[in-house]
């Protein structure tokens, strides 16, 4: 093993140890406070509810540690262990069809990777979620979802991947700009077609019929100057009892979606306050900024990749002897998961900052106590931990912890 391979292995182990350390810190923080509800939640969260949330999060963390071990072994096996090269050796069509060869190699890699991750999804759904009363997914529905996801990957993913490999092959040194353009177009197109054609393949969406809630929402939308193609209720309860709400779409396909579980959990005033928070993201242009940042980062990533895939050492040190664009693409995507970890606290920080801004917007347009009550119900019903570890929060929390968020809302 040469020096660069040793450095790569060292980075893989460092990321593994960091993730394990963060998980252990989170486990210890939850265990330490398991038998006592935080002071500002004593009147709204019972000890049983608090302990259920603790046990639920501990179960998920313990699974994540095992998943971290397995994913690290898989990463090492695909690279230094020669896994990607083995796939290449067994998938040989013809040198006259390099694009088809590339599609098959990436396809086999993706299928193997998905199969290796499937046991964790099954265990999470039918053991952890089932044990704590959140799972409503039947085995048949789970299988159907997997099949639908696979078909979508074939219908959308294969043509797009073929386009990427084709652009990389014919556009010379500046292929990365053309691939970036294709990426931008596809993502913008998906924002338009997803709510209309793709989401209904998995869930049923019906217009909101609660007239009291609908009137409150219409008033709020008018006040905030927000236009959408409608407010819809999604049958989220067919898979889980967790509640949620979100914006989706772009332009004329833009719509507001409430889980049916959320409508059952919250009062109309609390629902309106939660929606006001989501409108805060829209008014502060958080979604637009995230899209622009995503496109900018993708451009930088593609530029870096355009350099690495032409370096023989890049392949050799990662266990691949067949130097091709499609192997370079696989290797780079694997590396990206390693090198993105140090930047997680930065992205998480700005995400939490956006949540505070959206909460402040909601306070101006609705009663803050309605939002607080709604959030507390969501924390309880979703079994979110009220006592996370501070360092774990910095890395993984896209939303502020419950205690911090409620304290901010209670300010005048």
Q: Roughly what fraction of the amino acids lie in strands? A: under 5%
Query: Main β-sheet: number of strands, strand sense, barrel status?
Result: 4 strands, mixed
End-to-end separation in angstroms reads 61 Å
Q: What is the level-2 CATH architecture name of the domain at 202-287 and 347-410?
A: 2-Layer Sandwich
CATH class of the domain at 202-287 and 347-410: Alpha Beta
Order of strands across the widest beta sheet? 1-2-4-3
Report the mean per-residue pLDDT as an integer: 91
Amount of helix:
over 70%
Tally of extended strands? Answer: 4
Model regions low in confidence, pLDDT < 50 over at least 5 residues: none
What does this structure look like?
The chain is mainly alpha-helical. It has a domain at 202-287 and 347-410: Metalloproteases ("zincins"), catalytic domain (Zincin-like). It is 72% helix and 4% strand. It is built from 16 helices and 4 strands. The chain has helices at residues 3-32, 47-78, 83-90, 98-131, 139-170, 175-202, 211-224, 260-265, 268-283, 286-308, 312-316, 325-339, 344-365, 368-381, 390-396, 402-410, and strands at 205-207, 231-234, 245-248, 255-259. A hairpin with a 6-residue loop joins strand 3 and strand 4. Helix 4 (98-131) packs antiparallel against helix 5. The longest helix is centred in the N-terminal third of the chain and has 34 residues, at 98-131.
